[in-house]
Amino acid sequence: MNGEAPTEDLTLLAALETLERGIDAPRSAARLDEASETLSRLYTEVLGLIPYELAPVPPPAGAKARLMAAVRGEETLPAAAEPAQPAIPRKPPPVPAPEPRPAASRPAPPSTAVRPSRAGRWPLALAATLALALLGLSAWLYSQVGAQHAAIAGLRRQLSLERARSEGVAARARQLENEGFDMRQSLNLVSSRAVLISPLRPVAPPGQPPRQPDAHGMLFVAADHQHWYMSLQGLQPAPAGQVYKLWFMADRPVGSGSFTARTGEPIDLSSQQMPAGTRGAMITLESDPNAPAPTGPAVLQAAQPAAIS
Fold first, then answer.
1. Cα–Cα dist 210/34, whole Å
2. How many CA atoms lie within 13 A of 34 on its CB side?
3. Which of 43, 60, 71, 297 is the most exposed place for a label (fewest CB within 10 A)?
4. What are the distances in angstroms from CA 244 to CA 58, 134, 206, 208, 291?
5. Which tens digits make up the pLDDT trace of 115-171?
6. CA separation for the pair 240, 182 (Å, rounded)
7. CB of 39 closer than 8 Å to CB of 64
8. Number of CB atoms found within 10 A of residue 206's CB
9. pLDDT greater than 90 at residue 237
10. Dihedral of the CA atoms 234, 237, 242, 245 (nearest 10)?
11. pTM, entire model
């Protein structure tokens, strides 16, 4: 090729010369501009990395001697015969200029896991914070609901107790009202001029003293012979397993209920009805409160009734 060689060819030739003589060797007289100089260095680096991709071969004879001579500075020692460098027959094909980046052909080290940036971590932190806040709120609401249920249960128990107490008070009031009504009727009966009165006296077995000599009572009967009132005093508590029972003596003994006694406490009995044809009354001790006829010993017996004028 005639004429002046192109700049790119000069650059390639300068890179090959540098590789052949060494980086520190003096360069040829050809002078390159700054851009060509940079491109030459890049070519040198790329061409210098090519041997790393080749299969290893044993070094030629005398390589060690030349290397040691170069280290000691014995540059004048005769070098071993080397095969002559073949002349370049033709211009090598143009090599595209690589991008200016260091060690482009060297294998890159294994990349490590890329950590998420701070901008990518704050949504996760916000979500975790909201989850914890919701969990705490749920626990607080659950405890509040439990406390409310316990308070409601306590109020229901108190309401049940107050209701039972009020019902007991109402029942006691009705009982007292009935007792008061009975007492008024009994008082009217006792104070009436047409009432019949009959004292109750202790009964003594034949040849023995009375079983309860301190017991006594009074029976008041209205003029219609239906409404009656009885007051008893001095009766001793009944033995275990026994009760006192009142009998009206008509054509046959008719039971009018059983009762118990306490020491020193009076007993008041009354009713709006009396068996037809009643001629007397008697109190006995019975083991069976539902006995159809007297079976136990008599304790008190009513005397002949007398009218109060």
1. 155
2. 0
3. 71
4. 138, 75, 21, 21, 12
5. 555 656 788 888 889 999 999 999 999 989 988 999 999 999 999 999 898 888 888
6. 30
7. no
8. 4
9. yes
10. 30
11. 0.41
**What average pLDDT score do residues 211-227 get?**
86
Tell me which residue of 190, 201, 200, 265 sits closest to 233, measured CA to CA: 265
Residue 87: the pLDDT is 46
> What is the C-alpha to C-alpha distance for residues 60 and 16, in angstroms, rounded to an integer?
21
**What residue type is 214 in one-letter code?**
D
Q: In whole angstroms, give the CA distance from residue 89 to residue 92.
A: 9
The per-residue pLDDT of the chain, averaged, comes to 76
pLDDT tens sequence across 191-202: 555 578 888 999
DSSP structural state of residue 251: S
Check pLDDT > 50 for residue 294: yes
Q: Are 231 and 275 within 8 A, CB to CB?
A: no
Q: State how far the Cα of 11 lies from the Cα of 30, in Å rounded to an integer.
A: 10
Sequence-ordered alpha helix ranges (H) in the chain:
7-21, 34-49, 63-72, 118-191
Residues 93-106 have a mean pLDDT of: 54
Task: With H, G, I as helix, E, B as strand and everything else as coil, classify residue 117.
Answer: coil
> What CATH code would you report for 196-307?
2.60.40
Domain assignments of the chain as residue spans, ordered by start: 1-108, 130-191, 196-307
Coil/strand/helix, residue 280: strand
Nearest to 300 by CA among 241, 237, 254, 233: 233
